[in-house]
Amino acid sequence: MKHLRMKAAALAAALALLCAGCGAPAASAPSSSGASSFPASSAPAPSAAPAQEGGAPGEYRAMWVSYLEWESFDFSSEAAFAADADEMMQNCAGMSLNVVIAQVRPFADALYPSELFPWSHLCTGAQGQDPGFDPLAVLLESAHSHGLELEAWLNPYRVRLNAARPAGELAADNPAVLHPEWVKEVDGGAYFDPSLPAVRQLITDGVVELLQNYPELDGIHFDDYFYPTTDPAFDEAEYAASSSGLSLEEWRRENVNLLMRQVYDAVKAQDPAVRFGVSPQGNMDNNYNSQYSDVSLWMAEGGYVDYVLPQLYWGYGYTTASGSTRYAFENITAEWAALERAPSVALYFGLGAYRIGDGDGGNYDAAQTGWQTGRTLADMVRDGRAAGADGYVLYRYDFLFKNGAWADLAAQEVESLKAANAE
Description:
By secondary structure, this protein is α/β, with parallel strands linked by helices. The protein is built from 15 helices and eleven strands.
């Protein structure tokens, strides 16, 4: 699949040369934010959308598969894991999706052999223990055999979410253990310090390692975990030592910008056909002011990401306790679609399959019933197309295919999505 995109890119470049002579030209609860290395006229062409059947032309249609899905996978043998992977990929392909975004590094660990990160505890129950096979290689083979592309989902900074995740002790060769000076603790969690060049290099090297060892990967995906706190004490010493002349907030945003530019450049140096994208929170204020991720800059300038995928997990008519309808699906999608976007950057909408049946907790009459229609996600897909999105991603697999509480409703949503994808 990727080799087809590379051929297409080469053909496009040839046509461009011919024309030149002719003068041709994360969800987050409500509580957000433009131009880079490339001016609009010289921005790199956006990575090609995956091949597909049906649906809007060039539409990106994906499923998030998180570490929570891996908790129910059978890692006892390669054959057992492959059977689970094959069932998952078949279900995704059966919906006419074309991409699976698989979380393969959730806690400074790996679901693949790495020289930089220990084996994930998800494989055997103990971080650092080899399961005896390569889960990522299995996922790649399974996805491609079902006509799906696979993106490697990485959490860039997170080492530990809380005392329970990851389970057990960090491995002795975890970079957070080898370099405790790189790590900050927040509310029981542990995170690499975004201000440190050594941390940015580790994350970049991890991406390069993946692309070198798995040349068939179709993309690299970052989620919305950037700065874990707004507390000035988090990096007070580093900020004082920087003497940057920037405010603390500006300095933190620039630290994240440096990482994004560095990773983007590394991805393109390895393979220009590989996508690099990010899924920020749907709340732009939180991204900009709480996590210090200047998403509107990344969208407007190019040179940071190939796509932005905001997590728009609110229903139609969503209303906050204060009466604001800013985050209602019909309003927040328009807000994101109105942002300036470089030609090289695609916009996809993240949709909350985990809301099926349970609702979104909003202060409005349809907070639960609006998610019990059996076609809410399909309606959002259609309305996302109308709003100008280039595709969508569903969060997450288990809520559509292993939803014990709302099995019938989830099955209806799957059938409705199939119909929407065939239009």
